Amino acid sequence: MQTRSIAAALLAASATTLLLTGCTQQSTGHTATKPSSSPSATMRDPGAAAPYENACDGKQAVISGDGAPHRIEDCDAVAVVAKGSKVRIGDTKSMVVEGSNNDITVESVESVMLLGSNNKVHVDGDAPTVDDQGQGNRVD
């Protein structure tokens, strides 16, 4: 019985040594690059998700990042998944708002789908078709 305990302790110590040794080895075949910070990696609040902003690729854009200002130029389709943000969008054909408590201004939009709640959407151009499946949203 005692021999098994000693063998188990030796095995655990050997595994720990191997793991720690692997952590201290460094590769000399390449040079490491220093990480750089970017606006998308900067957080306003340690508990908030890091903002991710996808510039329009010519067809679509995604806007997220809570409580931050966002701007997207003209883009065919825009999805807003942010919360509590001020958003400015150029001309777009369609917009989906999944977030909540956003203040969104769009130059022109053909259709708006609201899935979130308490969003204000201001349209500078003609009134779009609106599909409001959320609560407390306003489009003017």
Provide an overview of this structure.
- This protein is 16% helix and 34% strand.
- The longest helix has 23 residues, at 2-24.
- It has one helix spanning 2-24, and strands spanning 53-54, 60-63, 69-72, 77-80, 86-97, 103-114, 120-123, 129-132, 138-139.
* Rg calc: 25 Å
Strand content: 25-35%
Which secondary-structure class do the elements indicate?
Answer: alpha/beta
Helix percent reads 10-25%
Low-confidence stretches: 7-28, 32-44
Looking at the chains present, what oligomeric state does this protein adopt?
single chain
Number of strands: 9
The number of helical runs is 1
Query: How far do the termini sit from each other?
Result: 79 Å
Give the ordered list of helices and strands.
HEEEEEEEEE
Keywords:
140 residues, alpha/beta, 9-stranded mixed β-sheet, 1 helix, globular
Question: Any chance you could write out the topology, listing elements then pairs?
Answer:
Elements: H1 2-24, E1 53-54, E2 60-63, E3 69-72, E4 77-80, E5 86-97, E6 103-114, E7 120-123, E8 129-132, E9 138-139
Parallel strand pairs: 2-4, 3-5, 4-5, 5-6, 6-7, 6-8, 7-9
Antiparallel strand pairs: 1-2
Give a quick precis of the structure:
The chain is α/β, with parallel strands linked by helices and 140 residues long.
